[in-house]
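Section 5.1 Outputs to date
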Amino acid sequence: MISSKNNLFKRILIWRYKHISERKFVYILSILVGFLSGVGALILKNLTHFFQHLLEGNLVRYYHNAFYFVFPIIGLTIVYFIIKYVIRNKVSHGIPSTLFAISKRKGIMKRYQMLASILTAPITVGFGGSVGLEGPTVATGAAISSNLSRLLHLNQTTRNLLIGCAAAGALSSIFKAPIAAIIFAIEVFSLDLTIASMLPLLLASLSAIITSYFFFGSDVLLPFEIKDAFKIIDIPFFIILGLFTGLTSIYFTEVYDRVQKIFDKINSPIKRLLIGGLSLGVLIYFIPPLYGEGFEVINDLIASNPEDALKNNFLNLDLTNVWSVILLLFGLVFFKIIASALTFGAGGVGGIFAPTLFMGSILGNCVAKIINTTGFYTVSESNFTLVGMAGLMAGVLHAPLTAIFLIAEVTGGYELFIPLMTTAALSYSIVKYFHPYSVYSMELGRKGELITHNKDHAVLTLMDVNKVIENNFVTIYPEMTLEEIIKKAVVKSNRNIFPVIDEQDDKLIGIILLDDLRTIMFDQTLYKTVFASDIMQNPPEIIEIGYDKMTDIMRKFKESSAWNLPVVKDKKYIGFISKSKLLTAYRNKLIEVTSS
C-alpha cells in the first residue's frame, strides 16, 4: 500500500517536471503557502480568542480579578506538559527559529514545528502570556512551506523563498496589509528583491489576504481612519517622538536580552516555570492591561479613550487628571517588555511583534499628551499613537520600511507617510548605533551566523565548513626520525605539508613543509639524528571547529597568505582546509544562492 502511494507520488513529480516549469511551479506553491499561512493565522487567532473569552470574559468579569494571578501559571504549566509529553522537542521563538533554519539548516525545519506553535501559542496568550501571535503564525507557515519544499524535492534557494512567502502570507493575513507583509519578508529574512522573488511573495501575500477576507470579512486588527491631517509644522514633534521611540527600543532590547540570560542560567525548567509564571501573575494582577496581546488597549488609545484601558488601576489614580493618565501609560510601557520577557523565560511560546506595537502606541500617546498639556502646541494624539507604533517597530525589529508601510496600510492611506518616515528612520538609526542586530537576530548575529543582504557574508554563512575539510594528509609524530619521515610520510603522500601530532591524544603540535625537508632529505648522515620535533614549525594560523566561522576562516587565509591551514577541534587534529577548495566551494554556493 505504502509502496503504491510512493510510486504514484513519484509519477506525479515526474509529470510535473515534464509539463510545468520550475518558475510556474514556484508560483503555484507560493499561492498554496499563502493560503496555508492564512489558515494558520485563522486557527491561532480563533483558539486564542476562545481562551481569552472563556477566561477573561467570564471568570474575571463574574467572579474576581484574582484569577489574573493564576491564569498565567496555569497556561504556562499546560504549555510545559504539551512540550514535554506531546511535542517532545524544544519549541523555539517563532521568527528566530525560522532565521536559524535559513542560516544554518538550509531552510529545513522539522515536522513537529508545523504544529508546535498552534498547540502552545494560543494557550500561552489566551491564559495571559504577554506576547503576540505574529511570530508563531510566521513559524507555522514557514515550517509548512519548508516541509512541503522537502516533499517536492526543491532546492535550498526555492525553499528559503517559500519560507519568505509564508512570512509574507502570515503578516498579510493578520493585519490585512499585503505590501507591508512583502517588505517584512524582505527586511527580516534578507530575501533578494528580484523579479524571481517578487512575484511569489506578491502571490503569497495576495492569497493570504483573500483567505483572511473570506473567513473574517472586513474586520481588521487595528480599525482606524485618519481624521487629523498632517501639518508640516508637526515635524519637530515627530522628531522628538523618534528620539523617544529609539531610546525605548534600546530599553526593550536590553531588558529582553538580560531577562533571557537570567532564565538561561536556571537549569531546571520547573524553576523557570514557577519563577516566570508567578512573577507574570503578580504583574498582571496589579496591571490587567498587560494580559495577552494588548490590541484592545491600542484601539482604546487610537480612539482617544485611554480611560477605558486604565480603569480600575490598583493605584486608584484620578483618570480625569491628565498627568495621572500619563504616569499610568508610562507604567505600561515600562512593564510590558518585562512581562513579555517573563513569559518567554517561563517557557511560553509567542512573539514580540504585538508587545512592540503595544509599547509604541502607548509611548506615542504619552508624548502627544505631554506636548498638549504644556499648552505650547496641540498635536493629534491618535496620529502620534500610530506613528509611535512605527517608531518602536523600526527600532526593536530593525524593520523601518515594514513599520512605515504597515501603519500606512492599516490606516487606509499615506497621509502620515512623512511623519512615519521621520520617526521610523530616526528611531532605527539610534538603535542601530547601539545594537547592530534586532531582537529576532541577536543571537545569530553575535555568532556571525545571520543571513544578511551582504551577499558575500550571506554566502559564507550558508557554507558548511565540514565539507571543505581535507583528510588525505599523512600525520607525523614528533619523535620520528628523518628516515622514518621520508619512508612513512614523504614517499606515501602526494601533499607537500605534514601535520605533526601527539601520538597519545592526537593534539596538533606543529607542521612540516616539504620545503623544510628538501635540503636535508638526501643527507643520510642525518637520518638517525634529526627528529620531527627539530624541523617542525608552528602553522601560520589554526582553524578551530566550533569557534571559527567562515568569515573568520577567510580572514585567516588572507592575513596568513597560506594555501593550507590545519583544522582542530578541542586542540585535536582534524584535517586541513585549502584555499583553492574553499574558493571553489564559495563559488559553487554563490551560483546556487543567486540562481533563480
